[in-house]
Amino acid sequence: MISVRNISKSFKDVQAVRVVSLEFEKGRFVALLGPNGAGKTTLVEMIEGIQKPDAGTITILGKSWRHDERHLRRIIGLALQETNFIDKLTVEETLRLFASFFGLGRERAREILDLINLGEKRRSYVMNLSHGMRQRLSIGIALINDPEILILDEPTTGLDPVARREIWDILMNLKKRGASLILTTHYMEEAEYLCDDIVIMDKGRVLVRGTLDELLKADGERNGARGAQSLDELFISLTGRHLNE
After folding, report:
1. Other beta carbons within 10 Å of 204
2. pLDDT in tens, 224-236
3. Domains by residue range for the chain, with CATH
């Protein structure tokens, strides 16, 4: 579905991504993990078309941002770390606004309201929503065009456990429908609960990629009795740091 080949990206003297190659398969949920500064957000922004790689290529369903930007914008749904809305629009008006960008009408906005469980708040101003509700709205906007690929950058950061679970429920329902997802997160349990595959990055490089069982088995083969028993232990073993450092 997505092919990332030998991409690199630098900002002045900082090499954010160092010759990374990855493949993302259709219908899979992939967690992209790494300490702060690991390069995961820069990698995601290049896949999203927000940043351009200095070297290497990215193809999405066989198409590239250089030649097919208009098409790719229609098949990808994005939710960034922070999204600013128009405070004096209601929830439903906000969804209708974004639906209009894709030539969609009121019915699609109502479908999304049901999907993100904000039907009771449809007439509420965005400025009056809780942080968790704003995050659900952000995901709703990412879904407005019924994208083939969904990319979420730390969608539950700062949420309480109940609000985080509400987001998880929405994403699990999408998974049952065959959605494809790239997720960056600062929560190990989120990656374990939602995702089929785990990618761990540090210092701009991909350290490992695979299912959790595959990664733990490989670590056990390398380290014997000292092998990691959980994703958290594996992460610390590979990077020497906790996820939120």
Report:
1. 22
2. 878 888 999 999 9
3. 2-85+148-239 (3.40.50.300)
Residue closest to 182 by CA, chosen among 72, 23, 8: 23
Query: Could you tell me where the DSSP H helices lie in 50-181?
Result: 65-75, 91-101, 106-115, 131-143, 161-176
Nearest CA-CA partner of 2 in 111, 67, 75, 100:
75
Instruction: Kindly report the pTM of this predicted structure.
Output: 0.89
Block residue for tokens 């990206």: 9
Q: Residue 110 — very low, low, confident or very high, per pLDDT cuts 50/70/90?
A: very high
Can you count the helices (H) and strands (E) in the chain? 9, 9
Q: Running DSSP on this structure, what letter comes out for residue 224?
A: G
The tokens describing 47, both together, are 């896949």
CB contact set of 169 (below 8 Å; sequence gap of 6+): none
* Identity of the residue numbered 60: I
- DSSP characters for 2-50? EEEEEEEEEETTEEEEEEEEEEE-TT-EEEEE--TTSSHHHHHHHHHTS
Rg from Cα positions in the chain: 19
